[in-house]
Amino acid sequence: MYSQSRKWVAPRVLKEDQNKRMNNSRRKIAPNSIAWELNLDVEQHKKEFAEIQQAQLERNIKYHTDDAAERIRLGLPATPPAIKPAFGGKVFKGNDSAVLSRKTVFAPDFEEGREVRHATNHGWINKEIAVWPSRMEMKYEGDDRISTDKLHGRFLGAPRTEGNETVNWQQRSIIPQYAMEDFYYPVPREEEIWLRVHWIREHQFSDMEGVEALGKDLMDMLNI
């Protein structure tokens, strides 16, 4: 029965009509589609798709059954042990990362230690947390950047302090980044660019570079 009238229509005729309307819409939606044929039979397509899903399910069952049998034959548990989380599930507190406990903003408590109290009469606190770059800033650092070579191509938007609407984004101060996430400094040396996979004879890190790479605490321990 059509929803607009009380005239009874056989289900077969109704499905054929729906299929015809859908195929007519195909000319507007996907006129050049190779997957959606001109006179696609929707019911046949659903049937074939269900058969494919059933075959995939049977293959998965057979794979797991054969895998369990092979593990038992080798004297192993039928089910592989669950993969344990990294570091035994240990959760680092604060904004320490899993890489030598270096500070990072990619941590649940990334705001920890990112506050600066200004010496004003009100003593207000400005968090050193950068907001998402504005559309103008992303465009300037992206498509509008003059690219003379690959080195001067697209840049990531620098983290900047939050300001009011009257302050241009270029005038807002850049928030210092952690060493792990500083994509702008230091500029790589020629050796680091051209000889990254080669051993450079008698090449040594300076104390400043060692602190940058390993952290001050670890460098102090190594210098004992």
Automatic annotation (TrEMBL):
Species, as recorded: Ramularia collo-cygni
Lineage: Eukaryota, Fungi, Dikarya, Ascomycota, Pezizomycotina
Protein name: Uncharacterized protein
